[in-house]
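Have a close read of the entry that follows and walk me through the local backbone shapes. See right below:
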Amino acid sequence: MVEVRGDEFDGWGHSVWYFEIDDGGYPIRQIVDTGQGRKTDPVDAHSVAVAGLRSPGLRTVAADDLIVVLRLLVDRRDELGGARTETVTEIERSGSDCGRQA
């Protein structure tokens, strides 16, 4: 459930907080999900995995072909953007080597 406050902060979006608990039921770590869907920190990934194993009633997630294709396209776009930046930097550097400002 998303809380709607009815004020100027409604446009900020929402976050979901998960808590990893120990065997005694006490929280030992909190994890925030801002909806981006990517966790890159290994500690966070481990915490999410442990919380998932200990949480009954979670939905089974299956790979969606469209999502896989979109992820590949986004990754390729990122690679091309990096290559473009490297090329522009190289051109600017070679222009300055010729004695002129790029």
About this structure: Helices lie at 42-54, 65-97. The CA atoms of residues 20 and 49 lie 10 Å apart. The first strand starts at residue 16 and ends at 21. Strands lie at 16-21, 27-33.
